[in-house]
């Protein structure tokens, strides 16, 4: 077995660590804060501006950020000589900031594969406010082109943040539905990172650590939003899962999530979690996946898959797609679009027959 492990992000973790942001920005003259629009109303952006004296703010960030939003942010960067970005929020804000860091006239050629991201980019400090995407330690930016219907990642080592400032206290204001959706995304990152064809020992160990934390603390964080221990453990699970999957890459559940989100607007994490238990059974034909099941203390793939299903049910996530009223043509479209490049990382070949059977099963739930 041959493998390399690289993690260039400086990780700063702990309650109250948001106070260190001013020191992290001391070497720069003109920062831009990129944040979810919600933080304009709850006071967090004003708090950070007071801490750091940041003048420029960009909050035109939607869930599953669009390429046009990246272009608007890039224009603001060029026009104001911005020299560093601070990304505040969930995966949407972080992904938009990463793509904007190259300050391109248009991000679309990079999104559709016509151009490759070069080394030239602005430094980025990531401040996640959800325990979910792990984007603060990855080199991936997932964008949507709503005009063409394309949702896909851009992968570049230029997108690694310079630093990840993780303050679990910022998670306490998350509503239960967001806690659930982003939390199941953490589980998907860890599980898929482990069973990916690109797996390696360090990432495997990180994945197991994260998976155990999610099963123990996600239900508590969902039911007790102010529970600081649960929030801290889920923040830990998220960043560790980010470390676990960024090199091996995600697999089948993420591949299927893209059409489920783009066509039916199912939140990203919830869309990933929708198929995870199904693929846990399918991938049990892979020896390395069977090792994961054993390491987690399960005697069978069915037991592991059943616990994933129970976890989703306990935190109010969708268990099927019967509400979408899909016909056979809709299922065929989902099958076709699920053959995203991430599917090639799956340890077991996922055929049209497997996908059709899965979506038909989900159609009845």
Molecular structure report:
The chain is α/β, with parallel strands linked by helices and 365 residues long. The protein folds into two domains: 10-170, Rossmann fold, CATH 3.40.50; 172-363, Dehydroquinate synthase-like, alpha domain. It has 15 helices and eight strands. The protein has helices at 21-24, 38-41, 44-52, 67-79, 91-100, 108-111, 176-195, 201-223, 228-245, 252-264, 268-282, 287-295, 301-314, 328-337, 352-363, and strands at residues 10-13, 31-35, 56-58, 84-89, 124-128, 140-145, 150-155, 163-166. The strands form two sheets. A six-stranded parallel β-sheet has the order 1-8-5-4-2-3, covered by helices on one side. The chain has a two-stranded antiparallel sheet with strand order 6-7. Helix 7 (176-195) packs antiparallel against helix 8 and helix 8 (201-223) runs antiparallel to helix 9 (228-245). The radius of gyration is 20 Å and the shape is globular.
Considering DSSP H and I runs of 4 or more, what fraction of the residues is helical?
A: 40-55%
Number of helices: 15
Based on CA inertia axes, which overall geometry fits? globular
Can you tell me the residue ranges where pLDDT is under 50 for at least 5 consecutive residues?
Answer: none
Order of helices and strands: EHEHHEHEHHEEEEHHHHHHHHH
Strand order of the largest sheet: 1-8-5-4-2-3
Radius of gyration: 20 Å
CATH architecture of the largest domain: Up-down Bundle
The fraction of residues in strands falls at: 5-15%
Total beta-strand segments: 8
* Biggest pleated-sheet summary: 6 strands, parallel
**CA distance, first residue to last residue:** 41 Å
* CATH topology tier name of the largest domain: Dehydroquinate synthase-like, alpha domain
Instruction: State the secondary-structure class.
Output: alpha/beta
Instruction: Give the count of structural domains.
Output: 2
**What's the CATH C level of the largest domain?**
Mainly Alpha
CATH-level-4 superfamily name of the largest domain: Dehydroquinate synthase-like - alpha domain
Mean pLDDT: 95
């Amino acid at each position: 077995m041959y493998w390399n492990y690289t993690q260039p992000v400086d990780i700063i973790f702990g309650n109250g660590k948001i106070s260190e942001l001013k020191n992290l920005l001391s070497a720069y003259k003109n920062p831009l804060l990129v944040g979810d629009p919600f933080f304009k109303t709850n006071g967090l952006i004003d708090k950070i501006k007071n801490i750091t004296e940041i003048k420029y703010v960009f909050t035109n960030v939607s869930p599953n950020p669009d390429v046009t939003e990246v272009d608007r942010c890039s224009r603001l960067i060029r026009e104001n000589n911005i020299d560093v970005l601070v990304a505040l929020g969930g995966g949407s804000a972080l992904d938009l900031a990463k793509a904007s860091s190259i300050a391109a006239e248009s991000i679309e050629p990079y999104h559709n594969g016509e151009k490759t991201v070069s080394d030239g980019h602005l430094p980025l400090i990531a401040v996640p406010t959800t325990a979910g995407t792990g984007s603060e330690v990855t080199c991936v930016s997932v964008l949507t082109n709503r005009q063409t219907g394309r949702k896909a990642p851009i992968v570049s080592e230029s997108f690694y943040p310079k630093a990840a400032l993780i303050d679990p206290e910022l998670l306490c204001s998350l509503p239960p539905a967001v806690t659930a959706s982003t939390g199941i995304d953490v589980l998907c990152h860890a599980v898929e990172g482990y069973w990916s064809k690109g797996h390696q020992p360090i990432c495997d160990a990180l994945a197991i650590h994260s998976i155990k934390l999610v099963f123990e603390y996600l239900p508590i964080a969902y039911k007790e939003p102010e529970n600081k221990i649960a929030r801290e453990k889920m923040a830990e699970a998220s960043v560790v899962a980010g470390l676990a999957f960024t090199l091996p890459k995600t697999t089948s559940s993420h591949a299927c999530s893209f059409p489920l989100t783009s066509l039916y607007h199912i939140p990203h994490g919830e869309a990933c979690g929708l198929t995870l238990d199904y693929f846990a059974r399918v991938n049990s034909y892979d020896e390395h996946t069977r090792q994961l099941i054993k390491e987690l203390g399960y005697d069978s793939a069915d037991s592991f898959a059943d616990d994933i299903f129970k976890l989703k049910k306990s935190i109010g996530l969708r268990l099927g797609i019967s509400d979408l009223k899909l016909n056979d043509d809709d299922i065929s479209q989902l099958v076709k679009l699920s053959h995203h490049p991430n599917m090639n990382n799956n340890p077991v070949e996922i055929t049209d027959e497997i996908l059709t059977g899965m979506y038909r099963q989900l159609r009845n739930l």
